[in-house]
């Protein structure tokens, strides 16, 4: 979503074990950060399950 106050694109995570809010100036940069965060937390979670 567009955050008027910050003038950035903002995403809220539902997959992280802690509240996670990502802000980036462009949609492409936000998508990149979202993918990085998802990979980071999915790797950590995957390691704990087995």
Quick structural gist:
This protein has 50 residues and is α+β, with helices and mostly antiparallel strands. It contains one helix and three strands; from the N terminus they run βββα. It has one helix at 27-49; strands spanning 2-3, 8-12, 21-24.
Can you give a write-up of this model?
The protein has 50 residues and is of the alpha+beta class. Helix content is 46%, strand content 22%. The chain contains one helix and three strands. It has one helix spanning 27-49; strands at 2-3, 8-12, 21-24. It has a three-stranded antiparallel β-sheet, covered by helices on one side. A hairpin with an 8-residue loop joins strand 2 (8-12) and strand 3. The longest helix has 23 residues, at 27-49. The protein is flat and about 30 Å long. The termini are far apart. The mean pLDDT is 85.
Element string (H = helix, E = strand) = EEEH
Rg, Cα atoms, Å: 12 Å
Query: What's the shape?
Result: flat
SS field, number of helical segments: 1
Task: Show the helix and strand layout.
Elements: E1 2-3, E2 8-12, E3 21-24, H1 27-49
Antiparallel strand pairs: 1-2, 2-3
Tags for this entry?
50 residues, alpha+beta, 46% helix
